[in-house]
Design goal:
Layout: E1 2-6, E2 16-20, E3 23-27, H1 30-38, E4 43-49, H2 50-54, H3 59-68, E5 74-79, H4 88-102, E6 107-110, H5 116-135, E7 146-150, E8 159-161, E9 163-166, E10 184-185, H6 188-196, H7 199-220, H8 226-229, H9 237-253, E11 257-258, H10 260-281, H11 288-298, H12 307-324, E12 332-334, H13 335-340, H14 355-361, E13 370-375, E14 378-383, H15 388-396
Parallel strand pairs: 1-4, 1-6, 2-8, 4-5, 6-7
Antiparallel strand pairs: 2-3, 7-9, 10-11, 12-13, 13-14
Helix pairs in contact: 4-5, 4-9, 4-10, 5-10, 7-10, 9-10, 11-12
Domain CRISPR system endoribonuclease Csx1-like HEPN: 308-381
InterPro entries: CRISPR-assoc_Csx1_C, Csx1-like_HEPN
Pfam families: Csx1_HEPN (PF09455)
């Protein structure tokens, strides 16, 4: 459990009694009360503006003051101060980057200490971090828990009751739009010099975005064979993420304003890639049995909003299995070849007039390019190798 907070001047806090679910703690800081309440494993992460740290001669001075007042089990992270070079969005970025780097599990956000503007920045950053963690499991499901803690002003009661409530965050299934060449605002020359040092990172990230787009569109537009035929996920997401963290932090270190949306979207893309990669690694072979089992279950995920895909995929696979049941053959045959041999599919014997439309209309099982093989009692599907590049281009740009 991590307890997150921003602080004001430590000397202005008074010792009071905090009540948390019936337990009372006497301390200067509600964060210390929460730490004691949750016990072993609980830690407080304090985000302190540079201007506040300067009042105490730096990080060590502020840390000493908090310990002097009885706070334990905390770490301090410096964030930019508003009113100097930093905008509100830069403060949010700085907190978000540190959360990604630290990767806390369940979190509690304290909103009753520190200046309101920094508290608001903390809540904004935590919402984005929760989105990031939920996107890491977007295909698998599951929730990432974040709560907010608050209490009345100290002057209102002898014992301050601390309330904990959920911090709701909605996560949507969409491709995060971003560009590592456009993370900064202004300071073009200095930012450009920094960007040149990360040319390799930006190239790898463009490759990651391309593969992410293929994976996303394959699910959204219901072409599951792409997970067996096109996707590899060879890029190391951990290494790429560390590179982007260093890249963004170098901008902040050089007092260059960042584009909050593009920065967070870069990490959202990596998070989604992890979920897609985990799903792909759980697949074995493109049998009709596995396609129905894994992808029909996937489309039931309410976060994706793609339940109708399951209906079409089920019908298309049932049609293929019905066609196969009428034939015995060795090797691979296209669906079109098998239709030519079947009297039940007379109306389907011709070539597709609009191949791209038919590709997406039939779950990617275009009859001219989809091959069928009988193997160990299973029906195995695949695309003809000579058309994989064309199919990849269609999935990347499905619009007509």
């Amino acid at each position: 459990m991590k307890i997150l907070a921003v602080f004001g001047k430590a000397g202005e806090y008074k010792e009071v009694k905090f009540e948390i679910n019936g337990s009372v703690f006497c301390t200067y800081f509600v964060t210390e009360a929460l730490r004691r309440y949750f016990g072993d494993g609980a830690e407080v992460l304090i985000f302190a503006p540079s201007s506040l740290l300067n009042l105490y001669g730096g990080m060590r001075g502020f840390e000493s003051k908090l310990k002097e007042l009885g706070h334990e089990g905390f770490r301090i992270f410096e964030i930019p101060s508003l009113g100097d070079w930093a905008k509100f969005s830069d403060v949010v970025v700085a907190i978000f980057l540190k959360l990604v780097e630290e990767r806390p599990g369940n979190v509690i956000v304290n909103i009753t200490t520190g200046l309101n503007i920094y508290t608001f920045a903390l809540v904004d950053a935590v919402r984005r971090y929760v989105t990031y963690r939920q996107l890491e499991r977007i295909l698998q499901g599951g929730e990432f828990e974040a709560k907010v803690s608050s209490h009345p002003p100290p002057s209102t009661s002898e014992i301050l009751k601390v309330e904990l409530y959920d911090l709701p965050v909605m996560t949507f299934f969409s491709v995060p739009e971003t560009d590592l060449d456009k993370l900064y605002e202004g300071n073009g020359k200095r930012a450009g010099e920094i960007g040149k040092r990360y040319a390799d990172l930006k190239k790898k990230f463009r490759e990651l975005l391309r593969e992410l787009r293929i994976a996303f569109n394959s699910i959204r537009y219901n072409t599951p064979l792409a997970f067996y035929e096109l996707l590899r996920f060879d890029l190391d997401t951990e290494e790429t993420e560390r590179g982007i963290l260093a890249y963004c932090n170098e901008y902040l270190k050089n007092k260059i304003n960042l584009d909050l949306r593009r920065v967070t979207n870069a990490f959202y893309a990596i998070a989604m890639m992890r979920s897609f990669k985990e799903f792909m690694n759980s697949l074995k072979e493109p049998s009709t049995e596995e396609l129905k089992e894994r992808f029909l279950e996937l489309y039931k995920n309410s976060r994706l909003g793609l339940g109708v895909n399951g209906y079409f995929l089920h019908n298309d696979i049932e049609r293929i299995e019905s066609l196969i049941s009428k034939h015995t053959f060795d090797g691979k045959r296209t669906i079109l070849e098998l239709e030519h041999k079947s009297s039940e599919f007379k109306s389907s014997k011709g070539f597709s007039k609009d191949m791209k439309r038919n590709f997406f209309a039939h779950s990617g099982f275009l009859k001219e390019w989809t091959e069928v093989e009988l193997k160990n009692g299973k029906v195995i599907l695949g695309w003809k190798k000579e058309w994989l590049n064309e199919i990849e281009n269609w999935i990347l740009k499905p619009e007509f």
